[in-house]
Amino acid sequence: MLGEILSYIYSGTLHVSLDKVQPLYQAADLLQLDYVRDTCSSYMAMNVECFNYVDLYNFADVFSVDTVLRSCVEWIDINFAEFSFSKEFCSLSVTQLTEIISHDELDVKEETTVWEAVVRWVQHSREDRLQHLPSILPHIRFNLLTSDDTAAILEHPLVREDPESSEVIRNVVQKENPDLKPRLGMTTEMVLLSNANSSDLLFMNPQEGKYITCSYNCKQFTDAIDLTVTSDNNIYRLTRKLDSSRQLSIYKYKHAENVWEDAGMSLVSKSLRLGNNFNCYEEHLVEVDQSVYYLAENIEEGTMLMRKYNQHTDQWQECSQLQFENTTDFYSAALSSGPYLYFLTSMEMYRYEPRHDRWCKQSPSPEPNLEIRSAVVMGTEIFCTDFDFSQTMVYDTESDCWQRLQGWPDAGNRETSGSPSLFVLANQLHIWLTCSYDHNEDVEEHLVYVYDRSADTWRDLKATLPDKEYFSYGRLCTVARIYLPYLMSSGV
Prior knowledge:
16 helices, Serine Threonine Protein Phosphatase 5, Tetratricopeptide repeat, 33% strand, globular
């Protein structure tokens, strides 16, 4: 490895392969050669499937290679059902096993899959591992099991053989912890739309034909201005009273109880108070790299204020202020893509880099007359469309280039009577819009289209939304992963 490093120092070329990437990383770590170390960690992270997962997991854990550790965990979470039958799974330590089965991100359809995996792990070395079963059982989410499933587990030979395990199960079931979330594989992606005439929310998945309406406390829905979903599937709603107090509040959706509650971000209204001379047109709530940001545009001065919420100190921190070049464009969108935050209007595009707390100007849309009504991120691209859905543009964040896509191709005698909203469902671009016929606003139709990138066409999903008036917060339809039984208990 020293020879490889010397060759890199003299030639500037580094050769990395599966058989030597780990010892090369160790040598670079010892010698504090950041470039070599980072190259090796990136190589391992991108080639997780080529390694023994447990060996790589242990290596990343010992050397605190966070990027590799995350990649290993993501792979195990996604492939847990298959991975749990492998020899590598049976070689996990009890600590590693309990950590893995504690993940919300496990892609399993039923909690019984987790229990069956634990049984296989214990039986692989029954005499040594049975003693660990009582410490493993609390990590199984019995609140997601039926009473029959729980009864069957209590009758399992491993449990009956160990009275302590039986007692642990009964205690866990009795406590009924509602905060244990469903696993990722148990949830369904749903689009959230608000009923314009009430405090109802419509949860819909047009691909699966699911439309569920839920009612909430109307006071909590007063003057809502934005809705955002974080990477860990927390849903936040930003509200500001339009009276003289201009009080700002942030509510968080509690999945298990299907209710909205105060987000607990102390002094929100005071920390984000806008001066009397701040003529605010739009406000945004966006998550970037697991941090929540609040943005407010000042039309008169052509500036945007931004605050970052620090969850450790429970404080809002001031960030670098953005100065617009054009102050006449009132239509904008704020989105996160990778480690950056993007702010775009029809005339300007900016990228915020949290690590350096700075704004950088990017290439603006080549369509200066495109009044952006909706924008959404999918992968490394940002899609946006106008009020009439006449054209759709896509911005590549990696190449800083724009491309024009097909707009709504079959309007016929219909025209949009409600602003269209883009959303991403099942990794596909969708749009929801409300249309009227021949300027007759009394006859409206809800339409949902999915975009076929290869054919550059939009396909009608024949959605059957309940016949009500809806709107989306911000510049897109919010999509979150929802555990349907929570909605069905109070849905209509």
